[in-house]
TrEMBL record:
Name under which the protein is recorded: AcrR family transcriptional regulator
Record key words, sorted: DNA-binding
DNA-binding region listed in the record: 75-94
Molecular function terms, GO-annotated: DNA-binding transcription factor activity; transcription cis-regulatory region binding
Coiled-coil regions, chain positions: none
SUPFAM superfamilies: Homeodomain-like
Keyword DNA-binding: yes
Residue span(s) of domain HTH tetR-type: 52-112
Source species of the chain: Nocardiopsis mwathae
Length: 238
C-alpha cells in the first residue's frame, strides 16, 4: 500500500484505488482552513476578487446602458451582456433590476465625489478659489454619468417601486455632495444664508447639467458660472 499525506493527514491506496478520508474529514479540514480550494488551482484569482471584479463590471455596464439606451433598455439582461457575464451572475449580485440600477447610481455618485476631493489639492487659494470650485461642481454634473442619473430620476417619478429605492439614495448622495461642497469652498454654515448659498450652487450645477444634455452652449454656461461666482463670494464673505 502506498501512503499519502495531505496537510498532516495520512491515507492510502492499493492497486490504483485510493482510500481517501470521508466527507466529514474533508468538511472539517476545509472549515479549519487546512485546504484552500481557491489557491489549489495555479493561475486562478481568488473567488472574492473575481466576485468583486464582476460586480464592478456590472455597475459600469449599468451606467453605460442608462446613458446610451435609457432606462427602458437598461434591463438586467442588457447590462449583463454589456458586462460580459451571464444573467444568472448578474442576479447573484443584484436580486432585482431596481437593486442593480440604484447601486450603479450610488457607485457613480461616490466616484464623482471622490474625484472632486482628489482635485481639491490643486485648487488655488485666495479669491480665485470660489470660482474654481464652482467650475468643478458644474463639470461634475455633466457627461455620461449625469445623463445616466437623469434617466433613473425620470423613471422613478412614475415608478413607485423604483422611487422607493431612489429617494433614500438621493437623500444620502445629496448630503454627501453638500458636505463636499462646503469643504471645498471653506464655507462657514453658521453664518446666515451660507447653507442656502451652498445648496443653490449645487442646484445651479445640476440645472446647467440638465440644459447641457440638449444643447452644449458652453459660452452661456461659463457666463452664468462667472456671475454666480460673484454672488456666491458675497454670500460667503465673513
Amino acid at each position: 500500500m502506498t501512503i499519502y499525506e495531505i496537510n498532516g493527514s495520512r491515507w492510502g491506496g492499493r492497486g490504483g484505488v485510493h482510500f481517501a478520508p470521508g466527507p466529514t474529514w474533508w468538511s472539517a479540514r476545509r472549515a479549519r482552513g487546512s485546504i484552500d480550494l481557491e489557491t489549489a488551482a495555479p493561475g486562478r484569482e481568488p473567488r472574492q476578487d473575481r466576485s468583486r471584479a464582476t460586480r464592478q463590471r456590472l455597475l459600469a455596464a449599468a451606467v453605460e446602458c442608462l446613458s446610451d439606451i435609457g432606462f427602458s433598455g437598461a434591463t438586467v439582461g442588457a447590462v449583463a451582456r454589456r458586462a460580459g457575464v451571464s444573467r444568472g451572475a448578474a442576479q447573484h449580485h443584484f436580486r432585482t433590476r431596481e437593486d442593480l440600477l440604484t447601486a450603479a447610481l450610488l457607485h457613480m455618485s461616490e466616484n464623482r465625489l471622490a474625484e472632486l476631493r482628489r482635485r481639491a489639492a490643486d485648487l488655488p487659494e485666495g479669491g480665485a478659489r470660489t470660482g474654481a470650485v464652482v467650475e468643478m461642481l458644474v463639470d461634475a454634473y455633466t457627461g455620461p454619468e449625469f445623463a445616466a442619473a437623469l434617466q433613473l430620476w425620470a423613471a422613478a417619478a412614475s415608478d413607485p417601486a423604483l422611487r422607493a429605492h431612489v429617494i433614500p439614495l438621493e437623500e444620502h448622495v445629496g448630503r454627501e455632495a453638500h458636505r463636499t461642497a462646503v469643504e471645498l469652498l471653506g464655507a462657514d454654515e453658521r453664518a446666515p444664508g451660507v447653507r442656502e448659498a451652498v445648496q443653490a450652487t449645487l442646484d445651479l450645477a445640476r440645472g446647467l447639467g440638465l440644459a447641457d444634455l440638449l444643447t452644449d452652449d458652453e459660452p452661456r454656461r461659463r457666463g452664468v458660472v462667472r456671475q454666480w461666482t460673484r454672488m456666491l463670494e458675497q454670500a460667503l464673505a465673513p
